[in-house]
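REQUEST FORM: STRUCTURE PREDICTION
Request ID: SP-0412
Submitted by: Lab K.M.
Chain count: 1
Length (residues): 180
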Amino acid sequence: KAPSGQAGAEAQIELIIMYYGVEERKRENEAKLQKRLSRRIIGEKASQEAVQKKAEDSKRIILVGHLGRMRNPDPEARRIAVQSISKVAGPQGIDLPSEQHTWAAKILQNCSERIEKDPIADVRLDALEALEHTTPRGIAAAVKASCTATRDSNKDVRLRAVKMIQNLAESGDEMAIHAV
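STATUS: Completed
RESULT:
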């Protein structure tokens, strides 16, 4: 039984004060925990952004290095550079760094140059495949480069170019139709 009278009222007040004290500590602890959690989330977000920035910087360094190697006098170095650029860029250029259009234009320009001017058929073939892999459908310069390759001296390059036009050209593209 609960005490009655003055002692009972004091005990009740004391219990209420203890209850509110416990509740207040719970709220304080929850607030501290929430603050720690939000700091951790902000820290994780900042670290994710830092990791993403490092990855993009690494891709830029790799792309710059390989774009330079595409003019190397050694044909094997040019082939490796073309293949590496294709892998770094990903399908249709989705893995390119944030200034994607600039990199896509550079890759397109360099691959087109290799397709038109490289004396080694394997390098021209790899440049065609890299161009097809990294370029989205409907890019006129890519279609033009593949049309140029249809007049190549090597039959494998010509065959690949004809197959590639189908993947790069939009339906009704007159340049592609006339090239084939």
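NOTES: The chain has a mean pLDDT of 81.
Reviewed by: T.R.
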